[in-house]
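User: I'm writing a short report section on ligand binding and want a predicted complex to refer to. Could you take this sequence and nicotinamide-adenine-dinucleotide and write out the structure as C-alpha cells? A short remark afterwards would be nice.
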Amino acid sequence: MKYPAVQNYVGGRFVIGGASFLDVHNPGDGSVISRVPLSSGQEVDAAVIAAKAAFPAWSALPIKERVQVFYRYRALLERDIESLTALVSEENGKVYTEARAEILKSMELTEFACSLPQITAGEVLEVSRGVECRIERFPLGVVASITPFNFPNMVPNWTIPNAIALGNCLILKPSELVPLSSSRIADLLREAGLPDGVLQVVHGGKDVVEAICDHPGIEAVSFVGSTRVAKIVYRRATATLKRVLALGGAKNHLIVMPDADLEMTSSNVVASMTGCAGQRCMAASVMVAVSDTDHIIDRMIHYAKMIVPGENLGPVISAEARDRIERYITEAEAAGARVLVDGRKTVVKGRERGYYVGPTIIDHVTPDMKIAQEEVFGPVLAIIRSKDLDAAMAVENASPYGNAASVFTESGGTARYVMEHASAGMIGVNVGVPVPREPFSFGGWNESRFGVGDITGRGSIEFWTQSKKMTTKWNREHGTNWMS
Ligand code: NAD
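Assistant: Sure. The C-alpha cells for the complex follow:
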C-alpha cells in the first residue's frame, strides 16, 4: 500500500479508530493505496467531546481573529497545490487539470471565509429615542459535515472554512471511498494554527452518519451526496431536532436551441457531460435538442471523439459504478435509443484494471426511459428531441431533481424564459456547468436539496449561525414613549 491506514483526527491528534477497515482504491488502475477505518458511535462520541471542549475558547475569539487561520490555510493550499492535486487524482481518479481546479476552488472558498468579518458585520439602529436594536450572529456549537466521493478536497471546503470561521467546532465525515484528502486538510489547518478540537475527522460509512444524526451533542448537520441518502439523513437528523441541510443528486438538463452558437455550444455540452468523468452534480445529463439541431449534435460527436480516456478523461470511482453506467447505456439501446458515441468496454493501455467509461452520446432517448429519469453519474449524455421550447421545458420540469439547468441560445427572450421557468436552483445561459462562484451561494431545488438555504457563499451564513436580537437603552429618560 502506498499510504499507511487512514486515521481519525480528534482533539488535534491523528488516532487509530474503527474496529474494521475498508480498502481504498486508485480508480485509475484499481490498486489498493490505503485502508480506511469504519468508525462507530464511540468515535463520534469522542469527537463530540473534543469539539465541545474546544468550543468555548474558539467561539469567544472575535471573528477577525478566527479568520486569520484561514488566511494562512489559503496560503498553505497554494503552497501544496501540486501534492494536493496529485492526491485528489490518485484517490478519485480525476485528471490533473480537474484535480487542480478542485484545489483552486478550495482556495476561493477559503477566501470567502476570510471575508466573513466584512459580510457578517451586524445591524444596529436607534429604534426610538435612546433605544437601540442590534442583531449579532452567534455560532451553533458542535456541527457536522458529511461529504461525497466526487470532490474529496472541494466539498469538505464548502463547509469547513465557513462553519469554523463563524465560530463552530466541526466534525467532518468524508466519503470512505476518498478519505485521504481530508487528512491533508486537517494537517494544513493544524499548521495554519487552528486550535486542537475545532476540527475533527471521523472516517467510516453508514454507522458514523447515523451516530452523527442521532447524537444529542451535535446541533447541525450538512450533507452532500445522493438523494437516497440525503433523504435518510434529513429525516433522521431532524427527528432529533437538528438543523439540517442535505444536498442530493441531480439530473441536469441542457436545452439546446437551433440558434445556439455552434462551436461554443457543442464544445461546452461535451465538456459538461465528460468533465470529472461525468461525476459532478452539475454535469449535463440530458440534452433537450429543440427542433433542428442536427448540426450541433454532429459537432458534439466530433468533440466527444477528441477525448482520450486515461489522458483527458479520468476513470469513474469503482468497478460497480462502471458496470452500473454501462447497464444504463445498454438498456437505453435495447429500448430503442441510438448510441452515437459508445464508451462501453473502454480499456486504457497500461491501466487495464482501471474503471474507465468513454464519452457516450445517446440520441432519440424518450422521457420514459430510465436513462432519461435517473442519475447516471458517468460521462453519458442522453439526447431527447423536442419540437419546441415549451415541450423542452416540460421535459426539464418533469424531473424530480432540480440542481441545475442550462439553455444554449442567442435569443435573450428565450434565455430569460428558461431562467424564470426552469425548476432548478442554478441556471446557466450558454454555460454548461453553471456553478455560482463566491460570494454567490451553491444549492439546488426539489429533490436536489432538503432543508432551507444554500451550502456555500452568503447563504451558508444563515445555516451556520443563529442571530440574537438585542434591545438596549442607556439614556435616563423615562415614560416618554411606549418602549421606555
Ligand atoms: P452517497 O450518498 O453514496 O454518499 C455520501 C455520504 O453518505 C458518504 O459520506 C457516505 O459514507 C454516506 N452514506 C452512504 N450510504 C449511506 C447510508 N445508507 N446511510 C448513511 N450514510 C450513508 O454519495 P456519493 O456516491 O459519495 O456521491 C455522489 C452523489 O453525490 C451523487 O448523487 C451526486 O449528485 C451527489 N452530489 C451532490 C452535490 C450537490 O451539491 N447537490 C454535490 C456533490 C455530489
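A remark for your report: The CA atoms of residues 155 and 425 lie 18 Å apart. The first strand starts at residue 8 and ends at 10.
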